């Protein structure tokens, strides 16, 4: 199965189509979060134009069938998630069906369809926004998931587009290990897994991919990075609450190693997050371990996917807003993992990476996997493409210019 995560804005779209043209997958799945960007009220009107450009592009001309689901109904606080799920089927793939969750049966996929706004009534998917009491600080923002179900030949599986909660404050994340935000994400992800494996429908292998917002254990990573530094606490004059933490070297003229504020993570040496793809810090990436019996992941061999600079001239630089982390992931159930294992006699054919390492695609560097191994039930057919992406602020401007 080719697993592909794609575009963010003009540059990301170009990188995504390069991946499609290179791997020539039979089935492409693109999962997006924040369709229309954070300023969705102003940018949502551009989404339809973007979709039309994508469907008519040269890279997609051999994909004769498509299903596009866009949650654009931002006026509905109860339901709006800003999620978008795109699925493209190559003309050579003859036998593909999609599940109707209301009729509880598979239906053959023909033609191209785009559904938006009231996805709650769309039978070919399940969409949920997390319950309000799940949200940190009781601010009901656009976090949730979309689930679709597919059957290719004799193999059926679920694809889940997910967006979990971020860390609202670096200072709060630093207070304890694991952080309060980690616990909230754990609760929400458990909710999703329980929903997609409950008794309403047959249990199938599933792939979950999107922005999990997984973060490194802040307290432990800071203790590691600043092990020989001394900490200075700066409090706000009016509230006496901690406003800033400054970590200084004990000698060397007490040089500042790290400055930490609510939305500032200014570490003296960004190279630690890039050298050897930052893998020395993977020991602090712990949030997935809670689900070790329910979710699996290929080995990470790429740098943290967030938060990259949004300056188009600094595609490799991180912003000094958060501790870099692997937020964007492709995860799978145990049975789904078994489906993508390659035969022992094949050359290495599984790639789990990100695209556009030197190109600015917004604050997330989207992750890609090219799983070119065959699912055993697909016989000799080359497998399809499953993936994740984001469409952010740049969507409204000069998107996908051919």
UniProtKB/TrEMBL annotation:
Signal peptide: none annotated. GO terms for biological process: phosphatidylinositol dephosphorylation. Its EC number is 3.1.3.56. GO terms for molecular function: inositol-polyphosphate 5-phosphatase activity. Residues 2-384 form the Inositol polyphosphate-related phosphatase domain. Coiled coil: none annotated. Belongs to the inositol 1,4,5-trisphosphate 5-phosphatase type I family. This is inositol-polyphosphate 5-phosphatase. It comes from Amphiprion ocellaris (Clown anemonefish). The gene is INPP5A.
């Amino acid at each position: 199965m080719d697993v592909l995560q794609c575009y963010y804005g003009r540059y990301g779209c170009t990188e995504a189509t390069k991946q499609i043209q290179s791997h020539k997958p039979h089935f492409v799945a693109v999962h997006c979060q924040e369709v229309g960007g954070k300023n969705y009220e102003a940018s949502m009107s551009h989404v339809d134009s973007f979709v039309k450009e994508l469907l008519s592009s040269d890279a997609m001309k051999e994909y004769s069938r498509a299903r596009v689901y866009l949650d654009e109904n931002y006026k509905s606080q109860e339901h709006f998630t800003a999620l978008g799920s795109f699925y493209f089927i190559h003309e050579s793939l003859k036998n593909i069906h999609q599940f109707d969750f209301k009729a509880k049966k598979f239906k053959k996929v023909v033609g191209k369809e785009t559904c938006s706004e009231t996805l709650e009534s769309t039978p070919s998917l399940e969409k949920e926004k997390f319950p309000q009491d799940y949200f940190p600080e009781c601010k009901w923002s656009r976090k949730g998931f979309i689930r679709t179900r597919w059957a290719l030949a004799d193999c059926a599986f679920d694809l889940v587009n997910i967006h979990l909660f971020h860390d609202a404050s670096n200072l709060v994340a630093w207070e304890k290990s694991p952080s309060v935000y980690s616990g909230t994400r754990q609760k929400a992800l458990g909710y999703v897994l329980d929903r997609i494996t409950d008794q309403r429908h047959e249990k199938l292998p599933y792939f979950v991919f999107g922005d999990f917002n997984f973060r490194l254990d802040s307290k432990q990573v800071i203790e590691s990075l600043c092990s020989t530094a001394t900490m200075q606490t700066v409090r706000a004059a009016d509230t006496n609450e901690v406003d800033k933490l400054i970590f200084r070297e004990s000698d060397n003229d007490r040089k500042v190693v790290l400055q930490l504020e609510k939305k500032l993570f200014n570490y003296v040496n960004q190279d630690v997050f890039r050298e050897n793809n930052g893998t020395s810090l993977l020991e602090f990436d712990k949030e997935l371990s809670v689900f070790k019996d329910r979710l699996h992941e290929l080995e990470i061999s790429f740098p943290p996917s967030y938060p990259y600079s949004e300056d188009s001239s600094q595609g490799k630089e991180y912003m000094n807003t958060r501790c870099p982390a692997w937020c964007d992931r492709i995860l799978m159930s145990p049975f789904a993992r078994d489906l993508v294992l390659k035969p022992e006699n094949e050359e290495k054919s599984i790639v789990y990476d990100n695209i556009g390492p030197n190109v600015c695609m917004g604050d997330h560097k989207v992750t890609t996997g090219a799983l070119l191994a065959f699912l055993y039930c697909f016989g000799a057919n080359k497998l399809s493409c499953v993936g994740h992406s984001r469409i952010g602020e740049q969507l409204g401007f000069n998107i996908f210019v051919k």
